[in-house]
Design a protein that fits this description.
Shape: globular
Helix content: under 10%
Low-confidence stretches: none
Mean pLDDT: 96
Order of helices and strands: EEEEEEEEEEEEE
Number of helices: 0
Oligomer: single chain
Distance between the termini: 40 Å
Structural class: mainly beta
Largest sheet: 7 strands, mixed
Number of strands: 13
Radius of gyration: 14 Å
Length: about 120
C-alpha cells in the first residue's frame, strides 16, 4: 500500500521554526516529484513547495520563498520541509504529495498520492 506519513507539526510562536518530515512507502519514491501543500480552515488546499525527482529543482510559493526549504532523501524515501521565521498566516494542515503524472495527448497517465496531513499552528 502507498503511504505518505507526515510528522513534525505542532505549535510554535511567530518567528520560530519547525521541520516537517514525510516518510514514503509503497511506490518508487525517486521517480516522483514531491511537494508540500497546506490547507487553512475555510480555504482550499494550496501549493507550498515542490522538488524534482533528483532534487535538482525546487519551487516555492511567494508567501514562503526565503523562509521555507524543501529537501528530499531518495535513499531513505523521505521528504522534508524546514520552516523558519514562521508567521500566523502559516497556520494550516500541511500535506505531502507525490506526483508522477504526465499528459500524452488528451490523456493523463501516472499517479498522484496524498499523505494524511499534520497540523501546524503559529501563535502571534
Amino acid at each position: 500500500d502507498v503511504q505518505l506519513q507526515a510528522s513534525g507539526g505542532g505549535l510554535v510562536q511567530a518567528g520560530g521554526s519547525l521541520r516537517l518530515s514525510c516518510a514514503a512507502s509503497g511506490f518508487t519514491f525517486s521517480r516522483y516529484t514531491m511537494g508540500w501543500f497546506r490547507q487553512a480552515p475555510g480555504n482550499q488546499r494550496k501549493f507550498v513547495a515542490g522538488i524534482s525527482e533528483d532534487a535538482a529543482l525546487t519551487i516555492y510559493t511567494d508567501a514562503v520563498e526565503g523562509r521555507f526549504t524543501i529537501s528530499r532523501d531518495n535513499a531513505n524515501n523521505t521528504l522534508d520541509l524546514q520552516m523558519n521565521n514562521m508567521q500566523p498566516e502559516d497556520t494550516a494542515v500541511y500535506y505531502c504529495n507525490a506526483d508522477n503524472r504526465q499528459r500524452k495527448g488528451w490523456e493523463t497517465f501516472g499517479n498522484n498520492y496524498w499523505g494524511q496531513g499534520t497540523q501546524v499552528t503559529v501563535s502571534s
